[in-house]
Write a sequence for this structure.
């Protein structure tokens, strides 16, 4: 029995179904907060009664607290020590109170995890240390770390991966070993300063890896071009990753804009970008580009580059790939403070 199936079995003893227990494991390890719609997404069910049965069971077991935000939107927090103890995570900080900004980031992280059901995630500090030191053979000194001074000021404790952004291995394709993938959850609305700090903290680890991907996860596309340039400046000695001088770069940028257009997400558009998209929809039209766009949507930038620019793909793969993921939900209802 794997650790995951053992955790699911442990939660079933509280009266949860297997599907409910699977979801609760994901929530507990990936933030501790969830919305009703996220459970329905996990089960593929559109019936509200399915989610209500889970919430009723959680309430009966006193495993959950409820916060109501703007527009009477409910957010549920898994907070009970017995639930976390049952899955071997009694001291997990996800069960503690968090400020609204952190809640917004945790909901976004869960949405991201739910869209990658086949991936192997490493949610805890211990999981990540084992991945990089035991499985990949890297020295622990390259891992992002933070030192904490004890209350008595007599000792220090070193913690790793304190930012809690998702780390995972995607499902293998074509027999190739998947590259470690890092997802940065961008919960801010007007700056990429946090992303730049994140890149600086992870730089030694990135440099030690033969291949990796960084996914900038946001609720809209407005800051994606800025984040792409931040990535290029932080990790590449040459031209920024956001350069659109070559035909390849133009096509990647076009597909990013085209995907936003499909989703009716125009938050990152100005008049010039709208006009450029209109021109490029004519320029990049036809069966070939439709196929490449479908490839980009389903498998990402790395797979697109492998198809249209294999030499560049190999070069980028060694340095790291930047991608963006725009979540199809708004998180503005959380706001910056708890509701009165």
């Amino acid at each position: 029995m794997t650790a995951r199936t053992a955790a699911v079995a442990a939660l079933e003893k509280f009266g949860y179904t297997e599907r409910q227990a699977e979801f609760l494991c994901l929530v507990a390890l990936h933030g501790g907060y969830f919305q009703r719609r996220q459970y329905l997404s996990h089960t593929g069910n559109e019936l509200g009664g399915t989610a209500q049965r889970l919430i009723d069971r959680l309430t009966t077991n006193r495993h959950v607290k409820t916060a109501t935000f703007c527009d009477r939107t409910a957010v549920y927090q898994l907070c009970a020590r017995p639930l976390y103890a049952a899955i071997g995570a009694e001291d997990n900080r996800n069960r503690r109170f968090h400020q609204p900004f952190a809640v917004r980031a945790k909901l976004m992280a869960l949405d991201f995890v739910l869209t990658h059901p086949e991936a192997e995630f490493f949610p805890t500090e211990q999981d990540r240390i084992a991945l990089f030191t035991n499985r990949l053979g890297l020295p622990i000194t390259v891992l992002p770390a933070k030192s904490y001074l004890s209350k008595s000021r007599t000792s220090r404790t070193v913690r790793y991966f304190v930012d809690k952004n998702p780390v995972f291995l995607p499902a293998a394709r074509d027999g190739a070993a998947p590259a470690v993938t890092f997802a940065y959850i961008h919960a801010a609305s007007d700056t990429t300063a946090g992303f730049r700090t994140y890149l600086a903290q992870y730089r030694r680890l990135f440099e030690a890896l033969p291949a990796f991907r960084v996914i900038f996860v946001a609720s809209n596309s407005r800051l994606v071009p800025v984040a792409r340039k931040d990535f290029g400046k932080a990790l590449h000695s040459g031209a920024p990753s956001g350069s659109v001088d070559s035909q390849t770069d133009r096509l990647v940028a076009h597909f990013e804009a085209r995907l936003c257009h499909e989703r009716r997400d125009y938050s990152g558009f100005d008049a010039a970008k709208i006009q450029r998209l209109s021109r490029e929809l004519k320029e990049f039209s036809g069966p070939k580009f439709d196929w490449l766009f479908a490839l980009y949507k389903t498998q990402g930038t790395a797979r697109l580059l492998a198809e249209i620019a294999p030499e560049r793909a190999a070069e980028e793969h060694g340095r790291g790939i930047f991608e963006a993921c725009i979540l199809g939900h708004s998180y503005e209802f959380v706001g910056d403070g708890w509701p009165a």
Observations:
- Residues 287-308 form the longest helix (22 residues).
- Residues 237-245 have pLDDT under 50 and may be disordered.
- Residues 3-97 form a domain with the Arc Repressor Mutant, subunit A fold (CATH 1.10.10.10).
